[in-house]
Design brief:
The chain is mainly alpha-helical. The protein has two helices and two strands, in the order αββα.
């Protein structure tokens, strides 16, 4: 029985591939979108592939956003303790510096020259806006 079933299947496949049976095959009409280069079937396959790629891009973007948000939360959690310690130390040091004034040791002897009093500057030439330098003319009243 097995041989007869295999033989009948083989006969069916041979009858389908007979070249005289072309009535069931319909010719595919090709419409060129770009003449000689791009047919409508390749155009539709490109569009479907592009839609698939856009869906994958959206999924990957959403996944990356979630991953990056989680990484940022972990980063903040790791930085929380060192920042808190630094902030507390900084404020404690500033408070103690305000309360406990340090003694001023003064300047070194080599910087003493910078703190000497300057000499008096030379007087400038009289300018026309100085008081008394412009003669006053009194007009006669009639």
């Amino acid at each position: 029985m097995r041989r007869s079933a295999a033989k009948s299947r083989g006969d069916k496949s041979r009858t389908d591939s007979v070249p005289g049976n072309t009535a069931s095959v319909q010719p595919i009409e090709t419409v060129d979108i770009v003449p000689g280069r791009l047919t409508e079937s390749t155009w539709t396959s490109m569009l479907s592939q592009e839609e698939g790629e856009e869906a994958v891009v959206d999924i990957i973007a959403e996944l990356m956003e979630e991953v990056m948000d989680r990484c940022y939360q972990v980063y903040l959690q790791r930085q929380l303790i060192p920042f808190s310690v630094w902030w507390a130390q900084n404020n404690l040091v500033e408070t103690l510096e305000c309360l406990l004034l340090r003694r001023d040791e003064g300047d070194d002897s080599e910087h003493e020259l910078f703190w000497q009093e300057d000499q008096e500057p030379q007087p400038c030439a009289i300018d026309s806006w100085a008081e008394g330098s412009v003669p006053v003319l009194h007009a006669a009243l009639e």
